[in-house]
Each structure stands twice: as structure tokens, then as C-alpha cells.
Amino acid sequence: MLQLDSLRSSLIVSCQAYPGEPMRDPRTTAQFAQSAVIGGAAAVRVQGIADIQATRSAVEVPVIGLWKDGQEGVFITPTVHHALACAQAGAHIVALDGTRRPRPDGLSLQETITRVHGGSNALVMADCGSLADARAAEEAGADLIGTTLAGYTGERPKTTGPDLDLLRELAGSGLGVPIIAEGRIHTPAQGRQALDAGAFAVVVGTAITHPATITDWFASALSA
Q: How far apart are the C-alpha atoms of 141 and 186, rounded to whole Å?
């Protein structure tokens, strides 16, 4: 089983493309992951069974796998079926919605995590949106807590950058599992701020692996 201490103070790169985009291809995802590892990524986060399989074969670093199904509510690895499929595809860590919202299959978060632990060697990263989510997820057996859904569940305002206040709140709450900063981290300085706020590791996606958005940032600034 993966030793989490290898990820302490590290950069995790999320390699994902949205449906319909030219780069939405498992081979491209794996190539992005390889490039990220060359640049210093200690782990990668990828979406979709084929992408997990391709990336697991392409890199030696830990793979955080998820399966998005839908666009609203609980859609990040929403059921135990999705979670076990990610583990079986080779994910070292399965990322799933770790909020307190009802899950589509009717199982509790604890039941879902228990089945993942019992049916695989994978760890579980709970993508949360608040301190209450994080506490419930830890109690449910999550191995890591992510701030991925901060600003998207209605419990907290959506910040323009990373939710540093939530990170500080989580870091000072006495949680016994690593806290992973994820969401709207667009610069190296913001990544450093996330670590300084108490994050165990930092996930960066769009600013590294989404050319359409990065291009729009520049184009919008030049045309303003």
C-alpha cells in the first residue's frame, strides 16, 4: 500500500481534459502525466478508467484516480461501483465526493470507503467542501482530505484563488489525516501559500494541464 509520507510538501498535477476537447484522449493524459513527472510532480490525478490505466502504465509515481459521472451534485466517483472500478484500473488513491450529500447509490460515505478498503489496496481521498465535510469524511475512514469542492457545495463562498481560510481551519481543527489543497491554485506563489496555510500537499490542474484556459487568460489580458 502507498506510503503517504512520500507526498509530503509535494506537487500533485491533475491531468484532465473536458469531454469534447481535442486533448480528451487517454494517451494524451498519460503524456501530460509523464511531462508533469519530468517537471517534478510527485503524483498525478486523472479522470476516467481508460486514463487511469494509460497513466498507470506510463509513470512510476502514485496515481490518484477518479471517475466523473454527471455534472451536478455528487458526480466525482459518485458510487461504490465507480470507486472500485478506479481501484481496479490501477489507482493507488481513489478520489471521490467526500461531502455529506446523499450518494446516488444510497450508500453512506462510510459504507463506500469501507468497501473500497475491503475490495482493494487503494487509499481514499475525500473531496470536501467544508470543515464539517472533512470531519465527517475522516470519521467515515478517508485516508486523505481534499479541499476540491470548496466553493461548489453552497457551504462556502467561491474564492478567486485557493480557499486559504478553509485550509487554515482544517489545519487547526485537529484532523488526523493529511489535508490536500486543491482548487483554483493558479500560480507557484499560491501553491506556496497553500502549504504555508497547512496543506500536506498541493494539487494543481488547470494552470499546468489545460491549454485552452491558460490561452484564454493571456488572450483576455491582451484584449482588455
A: 30
